[in-house]
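Hello,

Our lab assistant flagged a job as stuck in the queue for most of the afternoon. It eventually completed. Since we weren't sure the result was trustworthy after the delay, we are filing this so someone can double-check. Below is the sequence as submitted and the structure that was eventually returned. Let us know if re-running is recommended.
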Amino acid sequence: MSRFCNTLETTYKIPTVGAAAANMMKYAVEYNLTNVTGMPIRFIGVPFPVAGQPREVHRRYVRGNDMISNKPMMMTVVEHLTRPLTDHEKYSGPAPAPEPEPRFLPPDTEDNLHYLFKDKDWTDYNPIILPTEEKVKAMLEGTSHAPDKVVKIIDWPGGKREFTVEKVAICAVMAGARPEYMPLILAVATQVPFGNSTSSMANMILVNGPIRNELEMNYKGNVMGPHNEVNAVVGRSYTIMSKTAGNIHHGETTFSTLGNNLQYNNLCIAENEEALPEGWQPYHVKNNFKPNDSTVTIGTGWSYISSVGEMQKAYPSHFLMRDYMRSLSAIGGGAVVMDPTVAELL
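-- returned structure --
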């Protein structure tokens, strides 16, 4: 990966050549400088796929031509390692930011503006609310923060960009939020953009504390289903913020093979703190927050396993839980989301 090339060259002063598969060559060569490396990297291109291929296929790649220069692969590697750096390649400052979009778009019909937002990949391709000046101003009534206050400096990908309260409000309008949702959406905005990979990543948003009841989030049943506006809209806002302010675009800055439909809502749920078994603490309290603190926890993972199973005396519930954890161990830790009745059994 280019970030490792950057470390080898800047920290250890070792000349390095990156290798990119055909499906990511454009990103590697043209977007590498904006990918927080702060410096151009020389690349060679190999056919796709690379992972999982037998050795004879890899040997054929090495003995063939570089897909970027169309010269013999190993000759290109040697040339990249020995040729003096150009002035452009000596650049090691912050990654340059793209040209900002204008604050206002030219007047047009509502239909044309909807098409424009889709053409620019600013949506999740479900219907949005157009963020007019009036609607954004009304959304800002939901927070005491100044519109120009910076929520986060986004430095991936494409240089340092200021994600302001007003820009969060714009995304909130697009997602269909109400002004009272702004405190929660602002908290989520601190984690923009969401994680992505060539694998099919997804995200989870867990809400704790009084704000669950203040906004009337659904946490007592069907919490992952399309049955509550807050759960749906706050989760959706994370995707819209990540695609617009976070510059997450397929084929440019994200290359998931299958993608993940959980990214439409990002599993936005609230913990049913009132139904916890005796002795159990809410998640935010376990992490040293006070019970009356309102918190948001955001994690990135891949998918979920639905626990279809029947508890029996010969195979009690904690055995089932052990089996689920074993199935997740190959890719890391897991979060267990369970009904209060299951929690009581444990």
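-- support follow-up --
The delay was a queue issue, not a problem with the job. The result is valid. The beta strands are 18-21, 43-46, 150-154, 161-164, 202-208, 268-270, 295-301. The chain has a mean pLDDT of 88.
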